[in-house]
Amino acid sequence: xxxxxxxxxxxxxxxxxxxxxxxxxxxxxxxxxxxxxxxxxxxxxxxxxxxxxxxxxxxxxxxxxxxxxxxxxxxxxxxxxxxxxxxxxxxxxxxxxxxxxxxxxxxxxxxxxxxxxxxxxxxxxxxxxxxxxxxxxxxxxxxxxxxxxxxxxxxxxxxxxxxxxxxxxxxxxxxxxxxxxxxxxxxxxxxxxxxxxxxxxxxxxxxxxxxxxxxxxxxxxxxxxxxxxxxxxxxxxxxxxxxxxxxxxxxxxxxxxxxxxxxxxxxxxxxxxxxxxxx
Length: 279
Fold this sequence. Notes:
This protein has helices at residues 18-26, 39-67, 71-100, 108-115, 121-124, 129-139, 155-168, 171-174, 177-186, 253-278, and strands at residues 190-192, 208-213, 219-224, 229-231, 245-247.
């Protein structure tokens, strides 16, 4: 049996009950309530924790006695499995939010904040086709069709383009390249490299292509150019709600954010009208 944590008698020998100590770490005590009226509820929680600790002690002790499983190493292995499961669930949740419910419902910024990611760009690259397939298998749902939209973003190519803009663009634009990039990500836009004129060829121009799609199918594409402006295609008519142009060599990102908010408002209204006609 393992009565104390000093079962390996070296410089770490201690007269402690390892089973009880580890059970306490696995089931920590909560902070006491601020309100005296919650005393009964708090005591009930303490009683449950005491029972959980006793059960864990019994499980750890039995594992040691029957298989000589070190309780500390077993606890770490259990924590590792829980961490791996949490990471798996995070990937599946990202895939579900972006591939099954539609990109217009959840922005990369929202998902990043909820998951504790520092950068929204990490959300789009956190999962792959295997995770999408697993979500489909587990839920029975079908991912949104991709034949009406671009391929998945290529973060490596986009990063190369951004780096190039920071090195070669006008001095007034270089410092705002990433500010505009993260602003768009947080607003739910997805970045893509330039689109070649013919399949199988390389694009001749350098820019980041931003795409956002609304629930009723309205899609807007903006182009972040090395010269320091962010704009929709010049072919869009002046009265089209998707029309957009801002030069961030002359305006700060607060101004860019205001103009994007105005664009979103116009497109929201147009997309809602489109949905109403279709119903």
